[in-house]
Amino acid sequence: MWDWHIYIGYVLVGLFSIRIILPTLGQMKFQNPFTKNLTVKEKFQKWTYLIFYICVLISLVTGLIIELGPKELKKPMEEIHVLGIYYLVAFIGIHLGGVLMAEFTNQKGIISRIISGKKIEK
């Protein structure tokens, strides 16, 4: 089981690296909470994603230090790394709550569009 955790961690490091590189190539937008004229809802969404990315980065870096770093850092990095489950559970809860709120308010059909991948026709 531990081996799977490590392999998935390496995959996540690669995927996270791609996610960070793509906006620099103009292929994907980065959620900027400092953009002017944002609604409170949009600012909350963008701040949530920014905090999530920072927490994921911390988890990935601590995981890499646990695996590849000096042995004297292993214990303190494990303590930080284990805390990652808390932000992950909180983010999933906030994310699902936001999707459900959007589904039942101003973005009807968002769940089926997420699943099918179809864009909104305007």
TrEMBL record:
Residues 2-117 form the Cytochrome b561 bacterial/Ni-hydrogenase domain. Pfam families: Ni_hydr_CYTB. Its main location: membrane. GO terms for cellular component: plasma membrane. The chain crosses the membrane at residues 6-26, 47-65, 85-104. GO terms for molecular function: electron transfer activity. SUPFAM superfamilies: Transmembrane di-heme cytochromes. It is a multi-pass membrane protein. Keywords: Cell membrane, Membrane, Transmembrane, Transmembrane helix. Gene3D superfamilies: Transmembrane di-heme cytochromes, Chain C. The keyword Iron-sulfur does not apply. InterPro entries: Cyt_b561_bac/Ni-Hgenase, Di-haem_cyt_TM. This is Cytochrome b561. It comes from Lentimicrobium saccharophilum. The lineage of its organism: Bacteria, Pseudomonadati, Bacteroidota, Bacteroidia, Bacteroidales.
